[in-house]
Amino acid sequence: MSAINSIDLVELTHNIKAWGAALGFQQVGISDIDLHQHEAHLQAWLDNDYHGDMHFMKAHGMKRARPDELVPGTLRVISVRMNYLPPDASFAKHLKTSDIGYISRYALGRDYHKVLRKRLKQLGEKITAALSAIEYRDTEYRPFVDSAPVLEHAIAEKAGLGWTGKHSLTLNKEAGSWFFLGELFINLPLPTDSPIEEGCGSCTACMTICPTNAIVAPYKVDARRCISYLTIESGEDIPEELRPLMGNRIYGCDDCQLVCPWNRYADVTTEEDFHPRQVLHGQSLLTLFSWSEETFLANTLGSPIRRIGYEKWQRNIAVAIGNADFSEDNIALLKAQRGMVSEQVDRHIDWAMTQQTAKEHHQKSEQRKQQRLIRVIEKGLVRDA
Ligand code: SF4
Ligand code: SF4
């Protein structure tokens, strides 16, 4: 059986990148596992409770910055990225239409966890097969995709896939940030890539645009204020002071990416799996809110949205209806859905009813003012005649 020092690791690395490209990854980089420079930042983030009720983040502690504690024997991380921007990029306009449910771009197609994990596993199998062919049988690997114990942005940065932007996502000068990341932990001492120069400079556009001021300092996101966290991760009631700021965002938020100048250079995805499902994309809040649990499960089969469950889905949509322009239909559906799911959803429905009723009063008082004005003008016209 071959020993590791008889393997041409440079050639193997070259092949890994070619196999990764053939599997549909736009970039493959390799990093070592020394992330100690990120530990202080991670500890401060946890100490500030910026992780909210994602208690698993605290439970994993520094394991996140120590890949070989998570998977013993790991020597390198093969970091990959895959574009997800769909060809029809007319998403931002839905943010301006208060009666449409805005769903984050990455979530409109098939569940990326499944797509990326399967391809990473295939990459691991390719490596194992190539080394088995030369009698080396000790290869071990483990794929991760958006997995809590992995510090994916720090790893991607080390592997040269991009730099971490002030919004805390990975950015690339040629590709922007509309891509998924995945990691293959492996026990081979492959040659590593170098980090690239950061490109945020003096820009603060993402910090300024954030609807809830969740980017509390450059590179520091308070998850408790972030709409992605509030609509996807948090199982608690959404804080009332943040609800009006969420607008019609019912699953995730893209604002910090939409405004980022580097996303002008983003490529669209070649994966049909990530193309938007019509049943989710650009749908009215009323249509989405009227789904039964069975319809929700059927329409989100194979989608990342299914992971949040029906209760959070209804909770989020109730908030968005509260933020929508007033309509009788909104009030009627809110009333009809009360008592159908849970007390938590009902609390959000009650809030939405209050918002809609206040808008109705405001609208009626504006109409009365308008009518008074018209009467005054008409009287004046009669006198002058
Ligand atoms: S996803 Fe939205 S809420 Fe979260 S940091 Fe970005 S802009 Fe702010
Ligand atoms: S918007 Fe500006 S500051 Fe924010 S990530 Fe993009 S380049 Fe960096």
Automatic annotation (TrEMBL):
Catalytic activity field: epoxyqueuosine(34) in tRNA + AH2 = queuosine(34) in tRNA + A + H2O
| Main location per the UniProt record | cytoplasm
Tell me which residues bind [4Fe-4S] cluster 1: C200, C203, C206, C260
**4Fe-4S found in the keyword field:** yes
Q: Which GO terms describe its biological process?
A: tRNA queuosine(34) biosynthetic process
The cofactor note reads: Binds 2 [4Fe-4S] clusters per monomer.
Pathway(s) of this molecule: tRNA modification; tRNA-queuosine biosynthesis
From the Swiss-Prot or TrEMBL record, state where the protein is found.
Cytoplasm
Question: Which of this chain's residues are annotated to bind cob(II)alamin?
Answer: R64, D146, T164, L181, S228, C253, D254
Domain of life of the organism in this record?
Bacteria
The Enzyme Commission number assigned here is 1.17.99.6
Keywords attached to this entry: 4Fe-4S, Cobalamin, Cobalt, Cytoplasm, Iron, Iron-sulfur, Metal-binding, Oxidoreductase, Queuosine biosynthesis, tRNA processing
Looking up Pfam families in the UniProt record yields:
Fer4_16, QueG_DUF1730
Q: Does the keyword rRNA-binding apply?
A: no
Give the protein's cofactors.
cob(II)alamin; [4Fe-4S] cluster
- The record lists [4Fe-4S] cluster 2 as bound by C210, C226, C253, C256
> What GO molecular functions are on record for this protein?
4 iron, 4 sulfur cluster binding; cobalamin binding; epoxyqueuosine reductase activity; metal ion binding
Q: Which InterPro entries match?
A: 4Fe4S_Fe-S-bd, 4Fe4S_Fe_S_CS, QueG, QueG_DUF1730
Q: Which enzyme class? A: oxidoreductase
Tell me, what does this protein do in biology? Catalyzes the conversion of epoxyqueuosine (oQ) to queuosine (Q), which is a hypermodified base found in the wobble positions of tRNA(Asp), tRNA(Asn), tRNA(His) and tRNA(Tyr).
Quaternary structure?
Answer: Monomer.
Q: Which family does it belong to?
A: Belongs to the QueG family.
Q: What is this protein called?
A: Epoxyqueuosine reductase
Q: Which species does the entry assign this protein to?
A: Alteromonas genovensis
Q: Which gene encodes it?
A: queG
